[in-house]
Amino acid sequence: MNSIFIKVLFFLSLPLAVLFSNGAEAQNETPHFYFCESYKDGKEINVSNTFSTGYLTAILDIRHLETTIGVSTLALEITMIADDKGFYDVEQVLDLITFAVDPNWDYMYFTEESRLKFDKPGVYRVMVLKEPNTQIAGGLLKITSKK
Fold this sequence. Notes:
Layout: H1 2-28, E1 32-40, E2 43-48, E3 50-52, E4 54-55, E5 57-61, E6 73-83, E7 92-100, E8 107-110, E9 117-118, E10 122-130, E11 134-144
Parallel strand pairs: 3-11
Antiparallel strand pairs: 1-2, 1-5, 4-9, 5-8, 6-7, 6-10, 10-11
């Protein structure tokens, strides 16, 4: 009986292993885009996707792709997609922040304290755009009230 259980478990787990390994490969083929509280002395401070209101730093890492960004301008498009109570409203782009970058870079951090600030709790979508408005990466960010 245990032998049959082990065989069934093996055959059921094989497709799951293939599914997860394909997901890992797909993730390695896309730019890594994420957030941290700040970038200081060459270090990302408090990487997360949930923060309290305030300023943030966004990170775009393509080193694993063994390529460079290849453009001199990128933009971050910030959209609030839900308020702090989870109500989804009409999505509206809140800001489009343009950054000058070096085409040879494969790792970038974006800090714009006058504009990369989240004052209202909620869920935000932040997209990295190449000109003209071509999405190359994106991420979701949850902002909570300060306690």
